[in-house]
């Protein structure tokens, strides 16, 4: 079996188990980022860096297709893009809160659980990367927190 055939087999299994489709991913991504853009905590972080939302949303649909369905559509470097951002655990918690609520609102339970599991892993990984980028190595169970002066608490 080739790698492409194996990927197709994995994707088909996920689709059969969860009901996730590219259309569902698009709906989830667009609804989630509509909430993000209005959010007083994380909206400004995105808004200060994204002027044209359509390419970003297309890229996020490809990202979630790769994450949720293992399609391999996304070819980017999310860690590199997140490391210099002025964010910490509170921002990741808010991101997850909005994402989880959106997934629960729009997706069947099995699909929502699948998306949420992956979102939690992504948030944890990115938080560790952001901390590392600031010279902080987090231990198991530790969270990255910035003080108002920019130092880690």
Question: What's the helix and strand layout?
Answer:
Elements: H1 3-18, H2 22-38, H3 43-47, H4 53-69, H5 78-82, H6 89-106, H7 109-133
GO molecular function: heme binding; metal ion binding; oxygen binding
Keywords: Heme, Iron, Metal-binding, Transport
Binding site for heme: 56
How is this structure best described in words?
There is one protein chain. The protein is mainly α and 153 residues long. The chain has one domain: Globins (Globin-like, Orthogonal Bundle), CATH 1.10.490.10. It is built from seven helices and no strands. It has helices at residues 3-18, 22-38, 43-47, 53-69, 78-82, 89-106, 109-133. Helix 2 packs across helix 4 (53-69) and helix 2 (22-38) crosses helix 6 (89-106). The longest helix has 25 residues, at 109-133. The chain is globular. The model is unreliable at 148-153 (pLDDT under 50).
Can you write the helix and strand succession as a string?
HHHHHHH
Query: For the record, what CATH class applies?
Result: Mainly Alpha
- Give the overall average pLDDT: 93
Could you tell me the CATH topology label: Globin-like
- Whole-number tally of structural domains: 1
Instruction: Supply Rg.
Output: 16 Å
Uncertain ranges: 148-153
The CATH homologous superfamily is called: Globins
Number of helices: 7
State the separation between the terminal residues, measured CA to CA: 50 Å
Helix content: 55-70%
Most strands sheet = none
Strand-pairing-aware structural class: mainly alpha
Count all strands and give the number. 0
CATH architecture: Orthogonal Bundle
Q: So what's the overall shape?
A: globular
Proportion of beta-strand residues: under 5%
